[in-house]
Amino acid sequence: xxPSTVVVGVDSSTQSTKAAFxxxxxxRLLALGRAPHRVTGGAGARESDPEEWWRALGEAVAAGLRxxxxxxxxxxxxxxxxxxxxxxxxDGHGRPLRPALLWNDTRAAPQAAALAGALGGPAAWAAxxxxxxxxxxxxxxxxxxxxxxxxxxxxxAAVRLPHDFLTxxxxxxxxxxxxxxxxxxxxxxxxxxxxxEILGLVGxxxxxxxxxxxxxxxxxxxxxxxxxxxxxxxxxxxxxxxxxxxxxxxxxxxxxxxxxxDHPVLGLGTSGTVFAATRTRPASAALAxxxxxxxxxxxxxxxxxxTLAVDKVAALLGLDRDDAAPGGEAVLLPYLxxxxxxxxPAASGVLTGLRHDTTPRQLLxxxxxxxxxxxxxxxxxxxxxxxxxxxxxxxxSRPLRLVGGGARGRxxxxxxxRLSGRPLLIPAAGELVALGAAALAAGAASGRDAVEVAxxxxxxxxxxxxxxxxxxxxxxxxxxxxxxxxxxxxxx
Length: 492
Ligand SMILES: Nc1ncnc2c1ncn2[C@@H]1O[C@H](COP(=O)(O)OP(=O)(O)O)[C@@H](O)[C@H]1O
Ligand SMILES: O=C(CO)[C@@H](O)[C@H](O)COP(=O)(O)O
Known about the structure:
Catalyzes the phosphorylation of D-xylulose to D-xylulose 5-phosphate. The protein is of the alpha+beta class.
């Protein structure tokens, strides 16, 4: 049946853009348009041209519209969820002054350390912004730009995050949301506003930043005529505030105020993430204490090396990504991009425990184990940030929801199952970020709560995988190598 109202959720993530054309009444995914964009750089640098995101958004929407088989006039709203933290600097005409510095660019590590030492130190930062500056955070990137390319920083007429750069291209108005703003380290989750003392510390004029839209069914504007012509969608449809990609995944899963609270999620994409939607404001220096898209919070830990790093190890070994076996004695930490959790921006990959009988398949399995343990180590801290005891059996038995490209992978699912010892919930829908954005678009078009909409759609429903006994031997082997790296000693 042809739906009468369609909404478009856009996921502009690290490697690609996806546009989910979704039946607003039922949440049925009608089509998923996709377009890749490039990440360039080496030696710690990771950059993308924001104009490529805009081009990819146009291509993904055009492809989705063709495939959905609905008239453009059925589309009632659009929302963008984007990779977090990226620094976009624009001239007075809204054109990028240079490529965006991405979340996994580690060059700002010295600036992050200097910032973390200011204002009373890490605990004080966590208390006011929710998070301690690390190289990923936008404030650290801004400081890097001021030091290394002062001309670009001084000429900036606007400073944006990836999702609000795209939202502005759609609606012609500057706007961001509390979720993505909380990844800058210049927004306070305690006050719900930009922190003027921090802006003073980093020499950034607040007028360069987009206003933070209130949470709820937030429509920030309407699709401009120019954007409508470019995308082939009707001018005047609702444009939502959008949010960061992890916040949108929570919405798509139906997690948040109108849905389930304090249930953990594991994101397996370029980044590995663990997070939960909660009502307790996180202020632990060990986590990023983000805001969520629905007025609550999203304590989260993020690693820089997940699916892409493991795929790289598979390519080096000449193996298909699922041609892997448990690692045995071998431990491989695929920290190809440095690491953020733990905060080791200068780290590189580490291999220990190699024997004559170690096989290539075990080495690949060890890369999965290394990446999985690195992110799963933060799970208990996320649970504690929700005000819960991770050892409470009722809490420990809550299924871990898997999202991101890796959730489609057999070896990822089996590795996470074995190392977490938890039941897993694998949503039938593969694109939770784009579907979460679609729910935000539906909320903006109808005035309804987006988490409630996603809950009714059932986009978070899926297959429950029962737990297996936890592989503690591998867990301790891998964590001891990580602990050795953190302590600065020799691994192994
Ligand atoms: N079937 C699969 N098995 C394992 N990994 C997969 C599968 N499909 C996609 N991926 C991985 O998912 C990643 C892309 O996931 P995605 O969540 O879209 O990433 P991002 O949001 O960072 O752009 C790729 O790096 C790829 O390795
Ligand atoms: O930096 C973070 C979260 O703090 C990352 O999770 C980015 O938001 C990029 O995500 P993916 O492209 O891996 O989805």
